[in-house]
Specification:
Layout lengths: L46 E2 L9 E4 L2 E9 L3 E10 L6 E8 L4 E8 L4 E13 L5 E7 L2 E4 L8 E3 L2 E9 L8 E3 L5 E7 L1
Antiparallel strand pairs: 1-13, 2-9, 3-8, 3-11, 4-7, 4-13, 5-6, 5-8, 10-11, 11-12
Length: about 190
């Protein structure tokens, strides 16, 4: 398996190529939300996210780090993350992409307001090898969401497969405690 690192520079994204096109049978592609002008994307392939239709069932108080363990069935690049911000959660968040063994691959600090899905783009994009586990995470300042027992089996959408949620403490460190709960930390992935 070859790992590729794509460095973002002056690529132009043709939104028509990825906005809402039908994906493989039984799955949905993510329509890429508008990002800042600095959000650059490898200029081919379709955009995917794991949790295209799921919504949280509860909000809890807590601090620390929450995330999702996943792998891809095709090579591609992570261009950003999505996370569900709970009602009552505020402040600065740091989105992170990790190897499964704990090496930090990408990070970005964002400030968000309101509740619901929040999207943040990395300043560069990171190529991922297929069939290799990774984790995405975000810090929690006061509240987080979950769906208890959502991972009774893997959750997949197109080339992405999530295997479990993760909790951890302190904030900023890779979450290491697996859970069957979906904690709604997702990635934005572009197939090569």
């Amino acid at each position: 398996m070859m790992k590729r690192l794509f460095v973002a520079s002056t690529f132009v994204l043709a939104l028509a190529a990825c906005g809402g096109d039908a994906g493989p049978t039984g799955s949905r592609q993510l329509a890429l939300p508008e990002g800042p002008p600095s959000a650059t994307i490898y200029p081919s392939g379709s955009i995917w996210s794991i949790f295209a239709t799921q919504t949280p069932t509860s909000t809890l108080a807590g601090i620390g780090e929450v995330g999702t363990r996943f792998y891809t069935t095709q090579e591609g690049a992570v261009i950003g993350l999505r996370f569900w911000q709970a009602a009552g959660e505020s402040g600065t968040h740091v989105i992170k992409l990790w190897t499964d063994s704990g090496a930090l691959l990408s990070t970005r600090t964002v400030t968000t307001t309101g509740s619901g899905w929040k999207t943040a783009y990395f300043t560069g994009i990171r190529g991922l090898a297929d069939s290799t586990y990774y984790r995405v995470s975000v810090n929690i300042n006061s509240h987080y969401v979950r769906s208890t027992g959502a991972f009774s089996g893997p959750i997949s959408n197109g080339p992405l497969v999530a295997t479990s949620g993760y909790y951890g403490s302190p904030a900023g460190s890779m979450p290491t405690q697996p859970t069957a709960d979906n904690v709604f930390v997702d990635l934005i992935f572009q197939v090569n």
